[in-house]
Amino acid sequence: MQIAGGELPLGWTAAARVVVGANDAEEARALAVEFDETTAHEPRSEDPDEPQPDAEWSDWPQCPACQARRPARCPVCQAAGTRFPLADVEEAAGQARVLLYCGSCDDHFRPDFFRVCHQCGHDFGTGIEPVAPQAIAEETRRMWLVAGAMIIAGAALAGYFAWVMR
Length: 166
Hints:
The protein has 166 residues and is of the alpha+beta class.
């Protein structure tokens, strides 16, 4: 209600109220105090084996040639790196599957690893193929063509309006 503002009264007059009978007042107050105590802090994990959100994944794959961490990519936002925090470990069909946390898009994901080591060039055989430089050059060329066409169209439109408004 306080967000609505406008003609509504703000502050304590618009705050939520709980009304109970006199017979239930003590029980209601105890329930409200208990609720405030349980929600006044961050929830704590009851399971000590559950990985914490900022936990480091101890089994991160490494390059056999140079021992560098194998780079992973978030499939949601395409952010790449070697330091994604561990979010969870799922048990499925007898295999542990790792979920990492991406701080860029605030999502949990199963990591996609790159095929080639970024340090020494070791080929793992499977993984994400690196983008070829000619593909980047083609996209850049296409981007400049579109930008040039938009500038020409904008100049033509400005010239048209200048001619009409004379």
